[in-house]
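User: Fold both of these, please.

Assistant: Here is the first one.
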Amino acid sequence: MNTEIKNLLQDVKEGKVSVDDALLSLKEKPYEDIGFAKVDLHRKIRQGMAEVIYGEGKTVNQIVRIMGTMLENGQSRILVTRLNEDASKELSERLPEVYKPVGGNREALIYRYFPDARMGFVGDVPKADGIGRIVVVTGGTSDIPVAEEAALTAELYGNEVIKIFDVGVAGIHRLLAHKEEIMSATVIIAIAGMEGALASVVGGLADCPVIAVPTSVGYGASFDGLSALLSMLNSCASGVSVVNIDNGFGAGYLASMINHVQ
């Protein structure tokens, strides 16, 4: 994967950046302490993807201050997960406080809210530049909120995403009707609650990595997603990995990393 530090070193090699300037860039502090948070400024250098703000449990004032710190340090795209509509509305009203400095001036930021995924996003949406396509499938309609979080995360990290909803094993012919999309995917995210059987079935059809996401959808004995989690962890299909219950963001992030491996 191309990371910011690799690009910096390549620029030094090509004479676009001096050794001293590159050294200064690497020496800059790796995080900024703003009291209630230590904002990670070097995550993109280390991992290729910048820090994301987890919105649940944070006040809008905290989100605004973290966002401002990121923008002041050159992060041009900012993703906020688990953000409810009321908080998003207040955040959009306060965005003038966190304008991005450009050549001594300040330009307005583009802010979007995606209610189905409960995500806010500042900046321009990147073009898809992954090596293939990410397919997101759900067992039922009730799994869609987690699926939207996964799909949008992948899209905002520069991936082409195909969504196939409500194709659970209770009507497996619905899933088999999408064999072409499944078999042409580079990565598949399989999202299901109840007994979580979808991941094993998809894993048995696909020749690519499958990221299983258990959801908290189901009746009493599903134990808020624990049943699906254990089923997915015990999948007999090879090539299936599992993230935490309802963790659509984590699945979308991992799928993007896989889809950008050169």
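And the second sequence with its predicted structure:
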Amino acid sequence: MAKQTQHHGRSWYVLHTYSGYEDNVSRNLTQRIESMGMQDFIFDVMVPKEKKINMKNGKRVMVEERIYPGYILVDMIVTDASWYVVRNTPNVTGFIGLGTTPTPVDPKEIEMLKKRMGVEEPKFKIDVRKGDPVKIVDGPFKNFDGRVDELDEAKGKVKVLVSLFGRETPVELDFLQIKKV
């Protein structure tokens, strides 16, 4: 049998999967590692996810989103046998690399990714300042235009001046309920 793989020692590799099947592939691969006795060659399978806060029906909800839809990471030593086990896992379309040779991921990138995944409290990304014009995108004042009056970054709240019946009225909103115009 022709050699299909180059040896890089133990590294993280990127595996391409059908989008939406990342968790399924992770589970299947973990079972295959066990059942085929590959624990000495395939050490870890990771579906990179991060927590985000979204608005749903006017309430904040924490969701986990895949950072790289369609990709998972595998910590392994590539041999012909381990390559075959991973490559033939259902819903895996291949390794990222040149031809059949998987390309290892820079350990610094893996560290940054793990840090990003380990962030428990999502940060509020707010790019407005006092006086900025905004559009309200959620809640009872949806589609109203206003102007930022006060920011409370710690709580993720913003006070917006909205023109109601000819006068500016301050309305307290969540950062997620506004969009910069």
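The mean pLDDT is 87.
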